[in-house]
Amino acid sequence: MRKVFLTLFSVLLAINAMAIDLPKQGFGVQIGWAQPILRLNDSKTSIPKDSLVNVTRLNGFKIGVVYDASYIAGFGSSMGINYTFGTSSTKWAQIDLSHSERTRTLYNEIEVFVDWQYKFEVAKETYLMVYTGPSIQCGITLNKTSFNRNEVTNEIKQTDIRHYTTDSADELYKRLNVTWGVGAGFQYKRYFLRGGYDFGLINPYKNSKFEGLDRYTRGRLDQWSIKVGVYLWYNE
């Protein structure tokens, strides 16, 4: 036990020494608006491309923890873990004289991000910043629910598709997504505001079949976000 305590004490001393060497560092929380964007760009198939190209925008929120450090002058990094939720619903669309349909999509994911940033001090304890860097996202759920309404009887039938867990005739998606983001922000003392756009770098679609035809779809999973936060601990 004595060796364990000595080891832990040595680690704490090392962390404290690092904190002294770094001009500024902080640990905080952030929350804000997020808009995941699922893009289907094109497909190798004989079906006309115009019937396949589409964009699904999911509005929701993002919440997470962030660690911020400055190394040389205003140059530093920001890293952390976020949880993102997004949802979208379409309006009722008439399929034929007796049926109409609407859909609802739910999306949840966890992401780890690392941003390289530069802070410009514009006044005392007031900064403007720009940043860029990658993030790795792991999808938890991507569920699509279709509602089909009989206009004569007003009966509604519901069909649920869980893209990450079931094999279906519809598009199936990969859980893992890698993005590269760019953004800008503002910081005043312990409080900060960040906003940016993440570009999807890998194809989120898997091989699938569509109306009996083999195909491989291409697309991206991008994301807008605006976050506000506060450093619970901040060393200047």
Overall number of structural domains: 1
In angstroms, what is the radius of gyration? Answer: 23 Å
CATH class: Mainly Beta
What can be said about the biggest beta sheet? 8 strands, antiparallel, barrel
Number of helices: 1
3D shape: elongated
Helical content band:
under 10%
Could you name the key traits of this structure?
elongated; mainly beta; 236 residues; Porin; eight-stranded antiparallel barrel; 1 helix
Give your account of this protein's structure.
With 236 residues, this protein is mainly β. The chain has a single domain (24-235), classed as Porin (Beta Barrel). It is built from one helix and twelve strands, in the order H-E-E-E-E-E-E-E-E-E-E-E-E. Strands 1-3-4-6-7-9-10-12 form an eight-stranded antiparallel β-barrel. Strand 3 (59-72) and strand 4 form a beta hairpin. It is elongated. The chain starts with a helix and ends with a strand.
Task: Write the SSE topology.
Layout: H1 2-21, E1 24-43, E2 54-57, E3 59-72, E4 75-89, E5 93-94, E6 99-123, E7 126-150, E8 156-162, E9 176-188, E10 191-200, E11 207-210, E12 213-235
Antiparallel strand pairs: 1-2, 1-3, 1-12, 3-4, 4-6, 5-6, 6-7, 7-8, 7-9, 9-10, 10-12, 11-12
